[in-house]
Amino acid sequence: MEASGGGKHFVLVHGLCHGAWCWYKLVPMLRAAGHRVTALDLAASGAHPARLDEVPSFEDYSRPLLDAVASAGEGERLVLVGHSLGGLNIALAMERFPRKVAAAVFLTAGMPRAGTHLGLTTEEFNRRITPEFFMDGKTMVLNTGQGARAAVVLGPKLLAAKLYDHSSAEDLELATMLMRPGSQFVDDPIMKDETLLTEANYGSVKKVFVVVKADACMPEEFQRWMLDLSPGTDAEEIAGADHMAMCSGPRELCDVLLRIAGKHG
């Protein structure tokens, strides 16, 4: 989806195995409020033409976002919104283009601290969950030009129990139809580089974490652990929505984003 309209410019970044489609309720709400919106498909996600085994690195996976931020007009400052794993994509964009970002919104999303490695929050999340968490999710091995890499497919039972448990049956069905294999890129060297996220760049961008209190995938306790990692980060809360707050609580999320844009945009 391309940006249109006036006002602030929101760039929406989906999480693991998802695509731009998951923002379909939120995009028209933000546009109706007079803002520009770009909902992106990251590489090998949504309607993006690449296959996951053709995406060699997290940087390549993030390329659609990095290109979109790089091409923002002179003087245009974006509001980046990253959901779930998408928090790491916007963190990379903030480090590369801090002066193009007015504010970064982490919607129940991975939010690393400046001076730590990008994969920190993913490692902690994976440490906290049990094998039973993934239910009917499947792991697979991709043969890439860089060797074998693990990928996951989120199964319908997992989606229903952990991600879309407060969403409509229609949203769950849509997600089940549109899921694609995804990767956390845990073995990518960029995930382990403790010099990547600097105070001067990433740390200089205003961050807002949106706590989704009823999230069964990324519990509130874990969300607040990430908030505590980064003192000075603003916090907003959404009650009664699931991990996919853009589906189960789009009006509440829209109100939060409009408030953030009015304060920081």
UniProtKB/TrEMBL annotation:
Protein name, entry field: Uncharacterized protein
